[in-house]
Design a protein that fits this description.
Structural class: alpha+beta
Number of helices: 2
Number of strands: 4
């Protein structure tokens, strides 16, 4: 019975750090997914709500203001407008919460969507 005395301590010392790293990975991945979903949904909504204004001279400013109201960076925002097509590209970096432990300081989130009118109906798709 005395031969097994340190095994529990060794198992605890090995398992706890692995569990903490796994938990940190889950938190970081969840945060990244939340931000990615927020960017995608916001871009899609902006495309749907501003498509009819695409030919206005201040279309870019309208789109930019809507992203800013949703707390999304517009540093790399692009809005390309054709007569019947609008393309929106945006990307930004978010700081890693726990990824810094393994050397990941930030993640890049990007979206490329376009809206096109077909048969008098707006179709929004990812590129």
């Amino acid at each position: 019975m005395m031969k097994h005395k340190g095994q529990t301590l060794v198992a605890f010392v090995i398992i706890v750090p692995v569990f903490i790293i796994f938990l940190a990975f889950v938190v970081d991945t969840s945060y990244l997914f939340k931000e990615y979903t927020h960017l995608n949904n916001t871009t899609k909504t902006i495309l749907k709500n501003t498509y009819q204004k695409r030919l206005e001279s201040d279309y870019y400013d309208i789109v930019k203001n809507l992203f800013q109201k949703n707390n999304i960076s517009v540093e790399n925002l692009e809005a390309i407008v054709d007569e019947n097509k609008v393309e929106i590209f945006n990307r930004y970096n978010i700081k890693s919460i726990f990824g810094q432990v393994i050397g990941i300081k930030q993640y890049e989130i990007k979206v490329e969507m376009f809206g096109i009118e077909k048969n008098e109906k707006l179709i929004v798709e990812k590129e």
